[in-house]
Amino acid sequence: MRFYYRRGGKGAAPEGFDRVYTEVDGDGNVLRELLAYVRADDSVTVEMDGELGGTAGAFVEMALALYRQQATLLCKSPKIDTAAGHWQAVLSDLALLTSRDTGDAARLSRFMEGLHRCFDLVERRQMTVAEVCRKMSIGKTTYYRYWRKIKSAPQRERHTELFEELRTKIEANELSISAACRQMNIGAGTYYRMRDQYKKERSVPNVPNSE
């Protein structure tokens, strides 16, 4: 999918993109939401490098976060496409030098995994919105903003047939839950529900037929 990110929201939204993310408050919440939604082979376009904070470090940090999700960043001014071979080589080296468990992208991933799971618990009436807000340290306005974004997001083709294979890799510490969710195109809440159902089915003892 093709995404467009901008700050301020002045002027008409550009055409030709699947979704346009507009940062109005300048608090970075929309950018973090975009990073949480991006999947492999997606691309994010910005008009200028200043849209990402105005520094080279902020631009590279965004490019690296997308690289780790197998997505690319395109900037119109200056013209930059991180799908280019030299960018991929640089980002590959940076990925090796930095830990996958640190930084804003990793913290956001854990936050969104927890939030998705809470959404699922609320829908199953096992948790209230107030309890979620206390647990996640967010207000109700933030809760419902994320909830509306997730519910209004375009549906992707799911690949739940990969669950058992990916679950084995997760248990062997070869894959993270967030990475598995991206491969199956499901939310963390859906993954946990599938995992619980899988364990429940495997825990039922086999009763031999009496003759």
How many strand segments?
A: 5
Helix proportion of residues, in percent? 40-55%
| Biggest sheet, spatial arrangement of strands | 2-1-3-4-5
Structural class: alpha/beta
Mean pLDDT: 78
Give a short account of the largest sheet.
Answer: 5 strands, mixed
The SSE order reads: EEHEHEEHHHHHHH
Number of domains: 2
| Principal-axes shape call | globular
Oligomerization? single chain
Helix segment tally = 9
How much of the residues is beta strand, in percent?
A: 5-15%
Rounded to an integer in angstroms, the radius of gyration calculated over CA atoms is: 20 Å
How far apart are the first and last residues' alpha carbons, in Å? Answer: 58 Å
- Residue runs with pLDDT of under 50 for 5 or more positions: none
Textual characterization of the structure:
With 211 residues, the chain is of the alpha/beta class. It folds into 2 domains: 2-97, Resolvase, N-terminal catalytic domain (Rossmann fold), CATH 3.40.50.1390; 104-203, no CATH class. It has 9 helices and 5 strands; from the N terminus they run E-E-H-E-H-E-E-H-H-H-H-H-H-H. It has a 5-stranded mixed sheet with strand order 2-1-3-4-5, covered by helices on one side. Helix 2 (56-68) links the parallel strand 3 (43-48) and strand 4 (72-77).
